[in-house]
Amino acid sequence: MPLNEEQLQQIRDERRDQILKAGLKVFARRGLVGTKLSMIATEARISQGLLYHYFKSKDELFITLIEQALQELKNEMQNVYKLPGSPLEKLRNLVQFDDEGQLYFMLIHQVRTSDEVPEKAKELIKQYSMETYVIDQLELLFIEGQELGELASGDPRKLISCFFTVLSALMTLNISEDGAYQMPEADLILRIVTGRP
Amino acid sequence: MPLNEEQLQQIRDERRDQILKAGLKVFARRGLVGTKLSMIATEARISQGLLYHYFKSKDELFITLIEQALQELKNEMQNVYKLPGSPLEKLRNLVQFDDEGQLYFMLIHQVRTSDEVPEKAKELIKQYSMETYVIDQLELLFIEGQELGELASGDPRKLISCFFTVLSALMTLNISEDGAYQMPEADLILRIVTGRP
Amino acid sequence: MPLNEEQLQQIRDERRDQILKAGLKVFARRGLVGTKLSMIATEARISQGLLYHYFKSKDELFITLIEQALQELKNEMQNVYKLPGSPLEKLRNLVQFDDEGQLYFMLIHQVRTSDEVPEKAKELIKQYSMETYVIDQLELLFIEGQELGELASGDPRKLISCFFTVLSALMTLNISEDGAYQMPEADLILRIVTGRP
Amino acid sequence: MPLNEEQLQQIRDERRDQILKAGLKVFARRGLVGTKLSMIATEARISQGLLYHYFKSKDELFITLIEQALQELKNEMQNVYKLPGSPLEKLRNLVQFDDEGQLYFMLIHQVRTSDEVPEKAKELIKQYSMETYVIDQLELLFIEGQELGELASGDPRKLISCFFTVLSALMTLNISEDGAYQMPEADLILRIVTGRP
DNA sequence: GATGAATGAGTTTTCATTCAT
DNA sequence: AATGAATGAAAACTCATTCAT
Prior knowledge:
The structure is a homotetramer.
Chain A: H1 5-34, H2 37-43, H3 48-54, H4 58-79, H5 87-95, H6 99-113, H7 119-127, H8 130-147, H9 156-173, H10 186-194
Helix pairs in contact in A: 1-2, 1-4, 1-6, 4-6, 4-7, 4-8, 5-10, 6-9, 8-9, 9-10
Chain B binds a DNA duplex through helix 1 and helix 3.
C-alpha cells in the first residue's frame, strides 16, 4: 500500500531535518571545504545520493544552515528582554548558550573567517549586521543596567560590541576535550561589562 | 660559474622563509583543507613545483608551521617576566600581540578545531600543554599581582586558564574588516583578571 | 528503487575483476611506473575516478595483483602432481603456461627487477621463496624422473632451480610480435632437464 | 690558467663516458620511465644540469645507449669465430657474458618490452634484426658443429634462434641477490643445442 | 664547463555531483 | 524516495628541462 501524500510529506520533513542537523554538526566543526558530503551523509545515516533530493548542492545546504543560524541568533536576541530578572541576570542567561546555539555560532564564524564560502553566505552575514541584530537590541538593556549600577559605565554601544565579540570568540573555540582551554564561568565573562569581581 | 655554498644556502633560507611566511598567512586564515597550494605559491611568488623542493608535502609544510607556532608561544611566555613594569603592566603587553603572533594563534586554533589535520600536528599540540607552557609560566606573576592587589583574588591557576582562553579566542577571531566584531581594548580584557573597571 | 545487496555485490565483483584483469595486462607489460592509471582505466573501460572506489591507490592495486600472482603460482605448482602421465609429461605441461599465467610471471618479474615497487610487494615476493613453493614441490617429481631415466642425473634441487630459472626467463620475455625472439618448443626446453635431444 | 682545447676535450670525453656508464647501469635495471635523471646524475656523480651539456634529453641519452648496445652485440657476434676451440667451445664463450654485456642485453630488453621508449629506439632495434646480426653470423658455426656431432641435429637457423632466445632471457633476468633464481651453468644451457647431458 | 634552484606539463588522487536501478 | 556506482573537474604531487650564476 503506497503512502499517502501526508505521510510522504512527513518523511520528507524528517529527512530534511536529519540532513540539516547533520550538516550543522559537521560544517560547524570542519567548515565548508573541510566537510565532505560523505561525512554529512554518514552523520545523517542516509546515502550520499539522497542529499541531492533535498538540496541542490553542498553550497545550498550550507547557505540554508546559515539562514537558520541567523534566524536563531535574531530570536535569541529578541528574547533577552522576555527573560526574567535584572539586566545583569538577563545577560547571564545569554552567556549560557545551549549546544545547538554554539554550533550556530561556529557556523557563522566559519563564514567570517573563510573565503571559500559561497558569495550568498557572505552577503547574508553582511546583511545581518551586528549593529542591527545585537547592538540595537541590547542598547536599552545596557543603559538600564548602567543606571542601576550593575554595569560599568562608558559608551554602551561599544561595551555591547566588545562583550559580544568576546562571547562570539568563546563560542567558536569549541572547547576541546583535552582540557587545553578552560571555558570561563559566566560571572568571569560578565566582569567585562560589570567591571567588578 | 656555479654559486658557492654560502650563496646557495642564503637563497635556500630566503626561499624557505618566503614559503613559511606565505603558508602561515594562508593556513592561519583558511585552514589546512581550505588552503590550496596554488594560493601559497602565489602568495610566496614562486611556482607550485618549487614548494616541493623545500617541503615534502602540504602536510609537512603545515606541521613545520605548527612547530614554529608552538616555539613562538613558548618564547612569548618565557619573555613575560623580562618585560618592564608591574605584573598587570606585563600582562597588558601580552594582550597586545603582534600580527605574526596572531597568525600563529590562529594556526594553533586550526589544529584544535579541525579533525582534518595530520596526526603529527595533533600530537605536537597535545604535547604542548597549556598547563606547562602557559599556566606554570604565569603562576608566580599572578600570585604577585594578587598580593599587590592588582589582580582579582581566587585560584590563580584557574584565573590564568580562563584569561588565556579568552585571549586565545579573541586572537582566533581574526577580526575582519567589515567591523562586525570589535576587538576590545586591552583594559577591557584585563578586567577579567583585575575585576575592576 | 535501489538495487539489492546481491545485485550490488555482483556489480562490485565484476568491476573489481575488470580492473584487476586490466591492471594485470598493463602492469605486466609496462611495469609499475610505466603504467599510467589512465591506461588501466581505458583498458578496463571505466573512468579513472572509479579505480579509487575499488583500490586505495595505484600501489594497492599493484600489490593485490602480486598477491594473486603468487597464489596462482602456488596453485600451479601444487597441481603438477595431479596432471596425468610420467614425470616428464607432467613437466611438459608446466612448460605450456596459459596467457594469464605468463602475465603473472611477468608481473613477478617486474617486482624482482625494479626498485620502484612498493616495499610491501618486495616483502611478498621475498616471503614467497622459490625454495618452498617451487623446489620443495617438484623435488619428488624430479627424483622419480631420474629413477625412471627420463631426467638427467645430478642434484635434483639444483636442476629444478636452473630449469625454473630458464622457464621464468622465457616467460618474462614476452615474446613480441616482431619475431625477434623465437619461443623454443617445449621439447627443446625440456632438454635442459633430460639432457637428450 | 685556462685549460687548453685538448684538455677540455679530454674532460668532455670523460664526462660523457661517465654519464653513459651511469645511464647504462640505471636504465638497464629500471627502464626508461623508471629512471629519473637525478638517479643517473647521482650515479655519475655530476649535477643534473650538466647532463644537458652532453645530451639534449633523457631520450637522446637512452637512444645513444641503445646504439652502443647494438654495436656491442654486433661485435660480440663477429668475434665468435675468432675465439679458439671447437664450435661448442666457441659457443660456451658466448654464454659467459661479462657484466657490461649483460647490462646491454637488459637495455635492449627494455626497449622490446616497453612501449614508452622513443620511436627512434624502436626503429633501431627493428633494424638490428636478430636474423642478420645473430642467425646469419652463427649459421656456419652451427652447421660445422652439427657435422662434428657436437650439436644436435635439426634446422640450424631455428636452433640458433631458440638458443639465443634462452640466452637473452637469462641475461635479462638480472639474477637478484636473494637467490630466488639460480643462473644455470654454461653446460646446462648448452644442453639445448647439444642435446646431451 | 658546472651547479642546483626554478618552472610547468603531466600524473595521481580526491570528491561533488549525476545516474541507472 | 532511496541507493551507491560512476563520472569528471580540480587539487596534490613528480620530474624532465631550463636558466641565472
